[in-house]
């Protein structure tokens, strides 16, 4: 399509930002409502679609009345499920102009004899363990690794993430942490948190509601940190001007926007040496449409028995795969407000970014990595869900 290519929208915060968690305000009592980071894809895509409407001088009341028949719907769609020609990828974090990827959950950290932190890959046990899913192989923490910690809320630049795909341990000093950490993590941090107090308002009378105080936790991004999303389906004339301002997240917080060329995806690993199979690294949250009663670790994968061992078999992009085990984080809960229906959006559970799936195939890994690296799987792919990178599984 002439004149249409992928753009990267980079958001830079002007002050603090607030990306509300999925719990309703009334459920927290005297507690504090936290801010999610990175924000959900719907938060970012909603901001982008709003900017596109403003650039076309849309009358939003007219847009909601005409719905899919409004001319703007041909550009941004209408409602949660219709994004028109738009396709998104992300949400990505960038720092110092470089895109970051989540450190996978199969890597842990441990203090060595010299008191310095060391990273290592978790071993997958060869012995079967009886679970509610059947007899399966599970991650194994060896005795000398007891006391190790996971690497949650850490990110790496593409160059270091490529080392992980090759089966090499990354450099901890290149990691970027969510919050300020120990000197071992010298890649810097992304944000600091700030508590804020507010009070409920009666908009019809333009007065505050007495006694209805609430407390939220905002995030203040580092000067060299920001958020971005890749957007395809737009022509160059649909892009905002440099430093366009928009509201981002809750409480009307402001951010600037600039458009950049989309960086290349993490390079495919060089398949040298022996590899048992491949590791599917989840870079953005994954939503799986549940079918039947059995747990589905990957879209369309069904349980099977092999010599008394529970495995899962399925296809991704036409490639038959066998899933042996997975390391996944806590379910990521996302809700929000549905502007089309003027009601809360149903809360959904996503497999979080950083999760890892251990797979084998009928051919050598190098023969099918090309078909899987950079693939999107699962539901809500137009929102950027389910982006995967393929690495080597070495035992």
3D structure, described in words:
It is a single chain. The chain has 395 residues and is mainly beta. The protein is 11% helix and 38% strand. It is built from five helices and 27 strands. The strands form eight sheets. It has an eight-stranded antiparallel beta sheet with strand order 12-11-3-2-15-1-17-16. A six-stranded antiparallel beta sheet has the order 19-20-21-26-18-27, covered by helices on one side. The chain has a three-stranded antiparallel beta sheet with strand order 5-4-10, with no helix packed on it. The longest helix has 15 residues, at 41-55. The N and C termini lie far apart (45 Å). The model has no long low-confidence stretch (mean pLDDT 85).
In short:
With 395 residues, the chain is mainly β.
Across the major sheet, the strand order is: 12-11-3-2-15-1-17-16
Percent of sequence in beta strands: 35-45%
Structural class: mainly beta
Radius of gyration: 22 Å
Terminal Cα separation, in Å? 45 Å
Total count of helical runs of at least 4 residues:
5
Overall spatial form: globular
Helix coverage percent of residues?
A: 10-25%
The profile of the biggest β sheet is: 8 strands, antiparallel
Low-confidence stretches: none
- Quote the average pLDDT: 85
Can you count the beta strands?
27
